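Q: Give me the 3D complex with zinc ion.
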Amino acid sequence: MSTSVFQARLAVALFAASATTLLTAQGTQDAAPVGQPARCGTPNTFQGGSFLDNPDCDFYQTNPSQTYAPTSVQRIPVVVHVIQNSSGTGNLGNALVQSQITVLNEDFRAMSGTAGANGVDSQIEFFLATTDPNGQPTTGIVHYTNNTWFTDAGGYYNSIAWNPQRYLNIYTNNAGGGGVLGYVPAIPQSGNIAGTAADRVVILYSAFGRPGLGGSPYNLGRTCTHEVGHYLGLFHTFDSGCGSSSACYTSGDRICDTNPESQPRYGCPTTATSCGSLDPVRNYMDYTNDSCMTGFSAEQVRRMRCTLVSYRPNLAQPAGPIASATSRSGAGNLNSAFFATAPRLGMQASMNVVTFNTPYSLAMVLGYTGAASQPFNGYTVLIDTLSAPVLQMPLMASATVVSWTYAVPNDPALGGLQIKSQGLMLGQTFALTNAMDLVLGN
Ligand SMILES: [Zn+2]
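A: Here is the predicted complex, encoded as structure tokens.
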């Protein structure tokens, strides 16, 4: 979409009831974890090849070019789907969910003073989504009670995934019940999974967050750090065994600055060797205890940054303006009749008017750059979604909230744009509602 929808002349945002946009889930990946009996169920043997292959970070090789050095912060919106059974097993509190996001940021940002401080800063950050796929405010945490889904069966993601191209979907359940702490069905370089409904990270509920409910040694949130590493294209440090020391970008884990390793390591065997050098037991992509792990390597970071660009181009957002919708009192005589969601670039947002218990039967929303007080003179268009702008004032039923949903262009140039808006209600006379100050943000 172009910026023309924000043209600077009078217009009226049509206020009409609109159908909620439903996410159409797609994808056919099997929910069953494959392979490992413990720590991680991500398959070690992938079916290589993807329609989005970038030879700098595809299934077969890595080129840790300077192009992928972390020079800007990229922020990934996360939705955590907490699945419990009817007995309540698997229920996780919001604070525990937030603690996992905190661990991800400590580890991926190698934040000083944390257990991840010794790693390399990827400048990749994570945040619980603040806007859902329909543009509505959200905590980024959704709870479900379903005995089948709790066992990681039933293809739950086909029903509940949020657009996997735009959100990192994390699910907590019993991860299949086979002792696996977590998995991704495949790295994005494999199986054309990126962006499908099956594209996800699954974490055993008792190994999620800090402190995880299952206790030591997997209770510091590193299972999720490890699985998100896969989600961003990393292999295990031991995948393909020792590989070739002279071709470490095309064998082993396709990374040269992690020592080669013939097998996964458990516990924290810091003097273990297997391929003529110390095993990388402190790397997040091994199988060691949570407390043993301390970081990603520089080349792993570059492979993840390359993966973001090449396989998940619509996922991360640059750090930028924070979307906001602030009600301004005193701007109209119908306080709180009008409310709006915070408009985020590339997402749906909505404006809503309450008509219940008012003498008004018609409503619209005006947007402009000036202060809200005189809505018919000298304003700036807020949203013009019609090819031929027409003032429409649909008759609205009483006893309802009427919602108008609009698409915000995914144009970084619009970031930070401030818009003032106000509802207008019409009946035998007209009245202004309260005003909303909106900021387009990430
Ligand atoms: Zn793994």
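A quick observation: Residues 3-21+320-439 form a domain with the Immunoglobulin-like fold (CATH 2.60.40).
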